[in-house]
Write a structure and sequence with these properties.
The protein is of the alpha+beta class. It is built from eight helices and six strands. α2 crosses α6.
């Protein structure tokens, strides 16, 4: 390509055998990923959290707008405020907002409106999507915002697992309280809350089965 707007892409250039080996190894590593609700209060260094977030921020985005902000909270007082507000919303969810089918589907997880992990986990990462950007007092449109932020969040969850830590996708809908507590600007809307840390000693997870390949893949050859 001509001009100065492109630079050469340097590929890894693995052999076919190495590609297959790496793909299979990574698949099996990620099959061990589980959402966890029981966290240790053991600290995780700030630099680790920064690396995880910057890995997430390498994700592709519409027109390379990178329409995300990651708020990493280690402050105990702020975490307590988030837990109190989240449990208030979750109580309403479990006692009226969620229909019987939804509640039935949640039974196997044995969850309720009490969210101790919001206090216990050493870090909370709140992912905000930026509906638009503000530059010099002017609005600038972002594109495919939810798709872009969703991809970045997936990369973040993968990075957390690869680092040997655990997380949980938490959506105490509605999440307007996160924007208020963290004093985020009007162009940012809460997308997801992720507690991050080490698993508690003896932590358990539900017995679940992931769908098989033939249930999720359709090949056209």
């Amino acid at each position: 390509m001509e001009g100065n707007s492109f630079i050469p892409y340097l590929s890894a250039d693995f052999s076919e055998e190495e590609i297959a080996r790496r793909a299979n190894n990574f698949r099996h590593q990620m099959e061990g990923r589980r959402s966890l609700r029981f966290f240790s209060d053991k600290d995780v260094p700030k630099d680790v959290i920064s690396d995880l977030i910057m890995t997430a921020s390498s994700a592709p985005s519409g027109a390379h707008k990178q329409p995300w902000t990651f708020c990493a909270i280690n402050n105990k007082e702020i975490k307590a405020k988030i837990r109190a507000a989240a449990e208030k919303e979750e109580y309403e969810n479990y006692h009226g907002r969620m229909g019987q089918e939804w509640l039935k589907d949640l039974e196997k997880f044995e969850t309720n409106h009490i969210k101790e992990f919001l206090d216990t986990a050493p870090w909370l990462i709140v992912v905000f999507k930026k509906i638009f950007d503000m530059e010099a007092g002017e609005k600038h449109k972002n594109y495919y915002v939810s798709e872009s932020v969703g991809i970045a969040t997936g990369v973040l969850i993968t990075a957390i697992h690869q680092a040997g830590l655990v997380t949980l996708t938490h959506t105490p809908s509605p999440m307007n309280f996160l924007q208020e507590i963290l004093q985020r600007p009007e162009n940012e809307k809460a997308f997801l809350l992720l507690p991050v840390g080490h698993p508690a000693f003896g932590a358990g997870v539900p017995v679940l089965q992931r769908k098989k390949a033939e249930e999720v893949i359709v090949f056209y050859e």
